[in-house]
Structure formats: structure tokens, C-alpha cells
Amino acid sequence: MNAISTIGLSKTYGGGRRPRHGGGAVRALDDVTLDVREGEVFGFLGPNGAGKSTFIRLLLGFLHPTAGSARVLGLDSTRDSVAIRSRIGYLPGGIAFHDGLTGERHLDDLADLAGRPSVRRAALCDRLELADRTLRRPIRDYSRGMRQKLGIVQALQHDPELAILDEPSEGLDPLMQRAFYGILDDLHEAGRTVLFSSHVLSEVERVCDRVAVVRAGQLVANEDVGALLARRKRRVELQFEGDPPDLTGVPNVTEVVIVDGGLTCSLAGDPRPLLNAVASLAINDLLIEPARLEDAFLEFYAADDSPDLAS
Amino acid sequence: MISRPLLGQTWRAQRTRVAIISVALVVWSSLMPVIYATFGRQMESLIESGIIPEAFMRLMGSSVFGLDAAIALGVSHPIAIALQVVYPVGFAALAIAGERQNGTLEVLLSRPVSRRAVFLTLLLAILGIAALTTAATVAGTLIGSAAYGLTGDLSAGNEAFLYVNLVLLLAAFAGIALAASASFDRPGPAIGIGLAVVLVGYLLEILGQLWPDAQGLQPISPFHYMRPFEILAGRGQASDLVVLLVVFGIAVAYALWRFPRRDLAAPS
User: Is the pLDDT of residue A11 over 80?
Assistant: First the structure.
């Protein structure tokens, strides 16, 4: 079963249910159809303004779709939004709190509203190093990183079936990011589903099973991280004892350039044809650069001047 | 449709401020019987001398300066009104639009609480506070009257009518301000609408009392339907309560229709 399933989901701002053409209407999300399977960690990628938050807000019922539909945990996102929210955890991007309250009071209040016991709170606070002493201080005294940690705890403390996390590692230092990835691993092992919006590609590559890439409101990719990377062109450097061989015509190999004592080329997909072609030669050195999600991402955004993303 | 945890949290967050306002209203309204007991005779002489213009007399319901008139004057005085509308207008205008602007509304709405439940819970909290601050006004009146042995001059029925009328006036303000709060992304317009209803309404009512040519404008003022001088003279009208109830009902119905249908985009 799919935890999230959208069909032709679209959202236009400024046009109501009948989108205006021109006149200031902004198409924030355009005909997005995707599924997030139960138990997977799903990355939703795109630079700021691409439509990630709009997609999430549609799932939560904060926005009403202009066209299409979304089902979350089998429920309609518009009609059953309260029932959906009883089963999910949500971390908004740039989360805000009532600064006069203590962290502990805030977590208690939100747990009361969720109507479910905070079974994971202690473990989460322990992992994120949110000490009791810290939680008893007013939130106005918290640093940005501490607020983000509190946001993560409030989203996950009641052990939701589905966690929707918008830019979850924003503001966390590298150590805490690592701790957060550990939390995601725990959720994954426990069979929980995580929808994870980010523009930090390295963390998506590290923690996600599948990714969707959204660009200007449109879905431009939706597949396994592994499959996406396998298709990537990787740079290969070979050094030989003798003259470099002619690799023209070897499957998956392109852009062959002879350099001093060796060659460089691009490799896309299965490396075996290349390895077979050079297997009988005396090779001094071989370097195949790992495929990176950043490269795949940049390819989707090749037409854009400067996508706002981080590796 | 009411979220008990949210109601409790709202009450807990506001109780100190509500207590301060209530104490201020107790002190204020307890002064009216004291003023009457201390200066009533002089005021009566002053009125009988005809030195006070007819228009100003109309402000006091054309009654002589008695205990009822002193109490009515205290209830409709700008200071008392300012204290009474802090929550029905100020808090109500901020309750949804302010949370929305701060980004805290989406944390609340990520819980299984419907928008209608949020609205009705906040409305109930504000009505409860209005009932409490109005009760503080009554309590102050009783304390001040008791201090000078004047409780026998008070009519329980008229006081109860005044209490209900004042609560309904505040309910009408709260309904309008909270409906505005649920309709905008920023608190500015909601505060503007709430304050405009109170200030313009108050001005129109006073203007109509002072200037006969402006009397035609009085019916569009909510204050026109809360006439303390008339009520305490035993001439309160149930139709005034009905009008305020209808205004409240329309505002709430609009908000219950509008709020769930609104798009709540990410706070900017």
C-alpha cells in the first residue's frame, strides 16, 4: 500500500479553483503524480520555490488543490485531513514556537493536541542531546539549532505512521545532523514512512530510498536513488604502461580523450563493457568517480542559472 | 467541535492578563457607587440648576444623577469599554491571524484539530473571558455599593439584564474580530476591522445622542443595542439582545464557512 499517492495534483495561487491565465496567477504545482510506499524514506528535492512546501501543505490539507487529488495513508487529503493529521508527524520548514513557553511545556501541549502518548520523546531527546535542563528553559533562549531539534522531537514524539519533514536538518550542526540521520534509520527499521523535503543533496543521497525532483512545480524525476545514480555519467581516468587503447564503440563509454600516458572518458550505467575492453592491458591506475546525486540534480536544473542547493 | 486541550492551553496562557483586567474592572466599577455616595447630592443640585446642557443630559438617559446612572456611566465610559474589549477585539484579532503570521498556527493545525474546532475553541475562550470580565464589573459594583450600604438600591433583575446585554455586546465584537482574524494572513486588517467596529460604533452612538440629526446613524452602531441607563431604569429591551445575537451569529457563521475553505500558504 502507498503511504502517499497523488494524481495530477496541481495548485495555482491567485486563481482560485479556476486558474486565471495571466493576471498574477502563479502555478506552484503542476500535475504531480507520485506514490510514496509504506516504510520507505522518500526524498523530495528541489531548490527554494520549486513547489516542495506547496506539495506538503496540500498533503496536510493546509491548501486545497486546484486540480487532481492526494491520498495520505489511504485517506483523502481534503476531506479527511483531520484523520490524516492524527496519524502523521509534521515538521514545518523554519518552525516557530511560542517563545514564552518552555520546550517541555510546548512538547506536552502538542502531545495533548495529538491525543497520543509521547512514546519516542525520551529517546529522541537523548539522541539530539536535548537535556531536561534545556527543555525547562523558555524557548526564547534557544538557539536556532535547539529550536530545530525541538521541532524534530514534536514531529516524531508520538511515533507517527508517516513523518513529513520539511528541511529537517536546517540549522543542525554536523554532529546533530548525524544524530538525525540515525533517527531516520531507526524510523526506517521500525517500518515508518518518511517524506523528506530538502535541498541538501548529500543527506538525501545518504538517507533516502527514492527521490522525486521537482522543478518549477513540475515533477522531473521520481525513482530509486540507486537507479538514478547508476544512470549518471561518471568520469573515468585510466593510466596504462603502453599506449592507451581505442575505446570508441565500447558500450556506455563516451567522451574519450587521450591524455599523457592514459585516457579519460565518461561512463554511464554498467561498467563491465569498459572493464572487459581494458582487462587484457597493463593498467597502472584506474579511477571511477562515484556517481553523485548532485550531478543528477544539476542536470535536471541545467537550464536554470543558479539553483539554490547544497551538497 | 471544541478542542479541550487547546481551550486549556489558551486559558493557561491568558489567565494572568485576564486577572489583571478583571481586577482593574472591579476597581473601576466599585468607584461608581463611591462617586455617587460622595458627590451624588452635589451632582443632583448641579443638574437641577439646569447648568448642564440638554444634549449631555441625554447621554445619561435624561435621568437624574442616581446610583443607577452612576453605574451606567461607569459601564459605558471609554475606560471601561477599553478594558472590556481588550480580549473580544485585541486578542480575537490576533488569535488566528497573529498565529498565522508567526508560523505557530501550522504547528497547531498539524495536530488532529479541525479549523472549525480551532475557531470555536478560541471563540469559547474569548466568550468565557468576556463573561468573566463582565462579572468583575458587576462584582465591583456590588463591592462599591456594599461599602456605602447601597445594595438595597440595586435591582437584581436590571443588573442581570445589564450583564447579559454587555456580554452579548462583547460577543458581537468578538465574533466580528475573530471572523476577521480567520480571514486574513496578517493581524493588521483583523485589528483594523475590530477596532473600527468599536471606535466608529462608539462615535456614532455618542454623536446620535448629542446631535439629533445624527440619530439615524445610531442603529448601525452595536453600542446602540446596549443601553445601560435604560436597562438600569428597568426599560431594557429584549430586541437589543436579539440584534446583538444576530450580529454575533452572522460573524460566526461567516467564519465557520470561510476559515476551512481558505488556503493557508507558508507564512512569509
Answer: yes
Distance CA B179, CA A259 (A): 73
The pairing of beta strand A193-198 with beta strand A41-45: parallel
Residues of B in Cβ contact (< 8 Å) with A13: 263, 265
Question: Which of left, alpha, beta for A295 (phi over 0: left; psi -120 to 50: alpha)?
Answer: alpha
Q: What is the pLDDT of residues B211-255, one digit of tens each?
A: 888 889 999 999 999 999 889 888 999 999 999 999 999 999 999
For residue B7, give the chain A residue with the closest CA. A113
How close does chain B come to A62, measured CA to CA in Å? 5
Indicate the average pLDDT of chain B: 91
pLDDT (0 to 100) of residue A311: 43
| Closest chain B residue by Cα to residue A65 | B263
A-chain residue closest to B266, CA distance: A53
Using the beta-carbon criterion (under 8 Å), do B266 and A88 form an inter-chain contact?
Answer: no
Provide mean pLDDT across the span A274-278. 91
Q: Nearest CA of chain A to the CA of B124: how many Å?
A: 17
**What is the number of residues in chain B?**
268
- B50–chain A Cβ distance below 8 A for any pair: no
pTM for the model stands at: 0.87
Q: Band of the pLDDT at A268, cuts 50, 70, 90? A: confident
Distance of CA B44 to the CA centre of its chain: 29
Instruction: Show the beta-strand stretches assigned E in chain A.
Output: 2-13, 26-37, 41-45, 67-72, 75-76, 88-91, 162-166, 193-198, 210-215, 218-224, 233-240, 253-259, 262-268, 283-288
Q: Which of A93, A40, A198, A125 lies closest to B266, judged by CA?
A: A93
> Could you tell me which chain A residue has the CA closest to the CA of B108?
A110
Q: What is the pLDDT of residues A79-130, one digit of tens each?
A: 999 999 999 999 998 899 999 999 999 999 999 999 999 999 999 999 999 9
Cα dist from A280 to A131, A196, A244, A283, B211, whole Å:
61, 46, 12, 9, 109
* Spans of chain B below 50 pLDDT: none
C-alpha cell at A191: 517500518
- Complete DSSP assignment for A5-29: EEEEEEEEETSTTSPPSSTT-EEEE
Q: Using CB atoms, which residue from A54, A86, A113 is nearest to B5? A: A113
- ipTM value for the complex: 0.83
pLDDT of residue B266: 82
Size of interface A-B (CB pairs under 8 A): 74
